[in-house]
Amino acid sequence: MADEIKKVAVLFSGKGSNLEKLIETLHKKSFPQAATEIVPITNNPDAKGIDAAKMHGLETVVVDHREFASREEFDAKLVESIESLGADLVVMAGFMRIVTPIFTSSIKAINLHPSLLPLFKGANAIEESFKSGMKVGGVTVHWVDSTLDGGKIIAQECVKIEPSDTLQSYTQKIKSLEHTILPKTVAKLLKISFTP
Ligand code: GRF
């Protein structure tokens, strides 16, 4: 069994289905290279993902953005919390906050986005992709920088948009793709041999 423990801080704001996948695949798992641990963090005390994490026995760190006067003050507290955990990797999975240079200059993080970036940046990516007339959509994992959904791409996978698809069925396809690409990418960045 590996001695080293790799900690992954997962930032989320809502449902947390991607957080759950990361917990199921990587929390307290042992690989030849290292053992892994997930630490959930949210800005939203009402996020459904808090309950999902609890079902897996994990407490979520809550840093409520409404308690801070500015984005910068919130980011400074977030950075402090992440640094005190000693996270090896920070993952944004449905984290609905725009981060400032206070965050990006201190924390190396990745983000999951439900489109083929650089197309369809922002909060309505699934719907915009679906309505675009394109025959494919997809998901992207990228490094976080100070631009919105604009950092260097790490992984990207696509899915067909069929004439028979509805927004709902297309959303399901995107979710399924997200649930495999994110654990795979996290494992790769941690240099862990992992097959979903
Ligand atoms: C995902 O579609 C992700 O790509 C986007 O926010 C959504 C979060 O979903 N950034 P969940 O909370 O993990 O279910």
Q: Give me the secondary-structure category.
A: alpha/beta
The first-to-last residue Cα distance is: 20 Å
Please tally the β strands and state the result: 8
Bound molecules: 5-O-phosphono-beta-D-ribofuranosylamine
Give the % helix: 25-40%
If you compute it from the alpha carbons, what radius of gyration comes out, rounded to the nearest whole angstrom? 17 Å
Helix count, DSSP H or I runs of 4 or more residues: 6
Low-confidence stretches: none
H/E element sequence:
EHEEHEHEHEHEEH
Shape: globular
Percent of sequence in beta strands = 15-25%
Which helices and strands occur, and which strands form pairs?
Elements: E1 5-12, H1 17-26, E2 29-30, E3 35-42, H2 48-55, E4 61-62, H3 71-85, E5 89-92, H4 101-104, E6 109-113, H5 125-131, E7 136-143, E8 153-160, H6 167-189
Parallel strand pairs: 1-3, 1-5, 3-4, 5-6
Antiparallel strand pairs: 2-3, 6-7, 7-8
The structure holds 5-O-phosphono-beta-D-ribofuranosylamine.
Give an overview of the whole structure:
It is a single chain. With 196 residues, the chain is an alpha/beta fold. It is 34% helix and 23% strand. The chain is built from 6 helices and 8 strands, in the order βαββαβαβαβαββα. It has helices at residues 17-26, 48-55, 71-85, 101-104, 125-131, 167-189, and strands at 5-12, 29-30, 35-42, 61-62, 89-92, 109-113, 136-143, 153-160. β2 and β3 form a beta hairpin. The longest helix is centred in the C-terminal third of the chain and has 23 residues, at 167-189. It is globular and about 50 Å long. It starts with a strand and ends in a 7-residue tail after the last helix. 5-O-phosphono-beta-D-ribofuranosylamine binds at residues 12, 14-19, 93-94, 112-114, 178.
